[in-house]
Amino acid sequence: MSFSYEVKEELARIASNTCCQKAELASLIRMAGSIKIAGGTGKAMLQIQTEHASTARKAFKLLKKHVKSPVEVVIRKNNFLKNHSLYVVSVNLEESRNLLKELGILSNDEDRVRFKDSVNPKIVKKRCCRRAYLRGAFLGSGSISDPKGPYHMEFVTTGKWQAGALSRLINSFGLNSKVMERKNNHMVYLKDGNNIADLLGIMGASDSLLKFEEIRVIKEMRNSVNRMVNCETANLNKTIDAAVRQIECINFLKQHNLFDDLPANLKQVAELRLEYPDLSLKELGQMTSPVLGKSGISYRLKRIESIVENLQSMKGEENHV
Ligand SMILES: [Zn+2]
Q1: Which residues of the chain are in CATH 3.10.28.10 domains?
Q2: What is the 3-state secondary structure (H, E, C) of the chain?
Q3: pLDDT digits (tens, 9 = 90+) for 184-226
Q4: Cα 186 to middle of ligand 1, angstroms
Q5: Ligand 1 centre and the CA of 151: distance in Å?
Q6: Alpha carbon of 103 to ligand 1 centroid (Å)
Q7: CATH number of the domain at 3-204, please?
């Protein structure tokens, strides 16, 4: 069962307040509704299509409450959807025309049947009704990725204006949703984990929100542990690289019988470095007499490196001549 499915199950179970029902129905119709001419009778029907049984039940109940004519539900096996069931909830268009106008979905133009793009401000005046509108929108066309992976929540809409209207409504709660065009559809999407968590809460999916946050905490803890380990590994690599370089320099001096020419304080540090290649500078410092700090050891080892660099460049010039 996908996380999207779980969220929809939870949202479909919520019984909306009487004042919110029209907002919820409006967004369900807007996101998942269409107008079809029924084959046999030639009558125009308003249809809500969904793959989600509980959403179909919700649409059925809400339509039944607000339209007098019979509401039908048909279940189709859809080969394109890998044999998933497709639920089609339909009601006669003429008999639901008044409701659709009230919901701000159909224009007042009697000759043309056309969905309006904007959200009717009257039905989303109250905050509770705006929340219900978003709940209906998610049931109609929303999806959310598994929180174990990258965060993503989206709503598929059929048009740019419709997407813009939904995005503005979401953002009226202080969130930052965006609109993107994909394959002739316009998607409203959110990528930020905090925003997605907030929207789950706003829609009323409190169980899903809890699960989302639990996974998020574990995921973020794992990320910060990984970051810490990576950082320590990087530092360790730097330390090892430096030690290898220092040992090469000291060996160069030995091979050229120059080691004994080093001043005593440098020689002492060089010998310790050879004997303890894996100790840190601080630890080496504690073995010298008198005890030296990290910077003192670092300074001496750098002196050795620069002596060797000078010798090597002179040698290079000699060879050249
Ligand atoms: Zn309300």
Answers
A1: 3-204
A2: CCHHHHHHHHHHHCCCCHHHHHHHHHHHHHHHEEEEECCCCCCEEEEEEECCHHHHHHHHHHHHHHCCCCEEEEEEEEHHHCCEEEEEEEEEHHHHHHHHHHCCCECCCCCCCCECCCCCHHHHCCHHHHHHHHHHHHHHHEEECCCCCCCCEEEEECCHHHHHHHHHHHHCCCCCCEEEEECCEEEEEECCHHHHHHHHHHHCCHHHHHHHHHHHHHHHHHHHHHHHHHHHHHHHHHHHHHHHHHHHHHHHHHHCCCHHHCCHHHHHHHHHHHHCCCCCHHHHHCCCCCCCCHHHHHHHHHHHHHHHHHHHHHHHHHHHC
A3: 889 999 999 999 999 999 999 999 999 999 999 998 888 888 8
A4: 27
A5: 29
A6: 14
A7: 3.10.28.10
